[in-house]
Amino acid sequence: MDQKVIATIGAFDGVHLGHQALFSQMRDYAARYERTRLVILTFVPYPADVLRPHGSQHIDPPHRHLERLGELEGFEVVPMVFSAELATHSAETFIREVLHEQLHVTDLFLGYDNRFGAGAKLAYEDYKALGALYGMEVIQADSLSLSGEIVSSTAIKSLIRSGEMREAYRALGRPHAIYGTVVAGQKLGRRLGYPTANVQREDADQLLPPDGVYACDLELLRPTGCSEQHHAMLYIGKRPTLGGELERTIEVHILDFDEMIYGMEVIVHIFEQLHPEHRFASTEELRSALETYEQDTRHYFAENTRY
Q1: pLDDT recorded at residue 140
Q2: 170-174: long-range contacts at Cβ-Cβ below 8 A with a sequence spacing of 24 or more?
Q3: Considering the entire predicted model, what is its pTM?
Q4: Looking at the predicted structure, is the pLDDT value of residue 20 above 50?
Q5: Phi first, then psi: what are they for 210, rounded to 5°?
Q6: pLDDT at residue 307 above 50?
Q7: Is residue 167 part of a domain?
């Protein structure tokens, strides 16, 4: 029997549980045959960054989704550059030139809401008919629902924007994570007794939750290649107590930790919002609030070992 090339296509921002359910369906399908290849065709940059360059926000920075996909056992990941020229290709052109002629796909799995090709206006039946022209079976994958809601990148972005980090955790299968580097700040936290690691995002368009205080883990990536995680208190906001409209910052106070880590890469794993943003009348009030925030953060980790 000829080899089956079973593929799927998509941006896969977040590589969440909905995506993983799709991959599981592909594995089950492949188990019916003796000789198979499982292929994930994805894009860098994300198509939305090309189609809607202003206002596009990401769950994961571009390229990071390639790392997550690369961790999947048994799949071959094929990254493809998404360009304005590629966006003009019709679905039939893409199926013929890329899926059929280049990748030799025999079976194509489409996510429950996946549409591709210029305009992306075709229905599943249209893709099935186009695939048949090139001897390709097109299969509509089942969606995954949690608490009656379909898991999707769009839904997860909405959860993060509204600060529903516990629900985002459930849909992602892990906490939402911010990637960045520790840079020098104004050292106000240190003067108040709460030194912070100021994190500059790797991707300025990576989605942040609302301003406020969060329980998080900070994963520190040592220059040696080792990594370690520490419980921490995260602040996102414009520091209104200092007055004026300051630039939004990401500041992490690591519990029981006293080390200079400037220049190191970090990943901030966000668990839950503990307090919204608040403007205090003085730095003394802010200092008192920080003590409360620390106590609440420690209490959170004493009560939660994850969700």
Answers
A1: 96
A2: 170/17, 170/146, 170/307, 171/16, 171/17, 171/18, 171/146, 172/14, 172/16, 172/17, 172/59, 173/16, 173/17, 173/20, 174/269
A3: 0.92
A4: yes
A5: -60, 160
A6: no
A7: no
Q: Using one digit for the tens of pLDDT, what is the confidence trace for 158-175? A: 999 999 999 999 999 999
Clarify whether residues 65 and 25 are in a common domain: yes
Helix locations, the chain, DSSP H: 17-30, 47-51, 64-70, 91-94, 124-133, 153-161, 165-172, 188-191, 283-303
184 and 143 part of one domain = no
**248, β-bridge pairs:** none
Q: What is the CATH number of the domain that holds 87?
A: 3.40.50.620
- Report how far residue 264's alpha carbon sits from residue 222's, in angstroms, rounded to the nearest whole number: 7
The reply to whether 217 falls in a domain is yes
- For residue 12, what are its two tokens? 């896969």
Statement to judge: residues 56 and 118 lie in one domain? yes
What's the mean pLDDT when you consider all of the chain? 92
Do 213 and 282 lie in a common domain? yes
Residues 39 and 143 in one domain: yes
Q: What pLDDT digit, counting tens, does each position of 100-140 carry?
A: 999 999 999 999 989 898 877 889 999 999 999 999 999 99
- The 10 Å Cβ neighbour count of residue 160 is 23
Range of the domain at 56: 4-150
With beta carbons less than 8 A apart as the criterion, state whether 5 and 88 touch: no
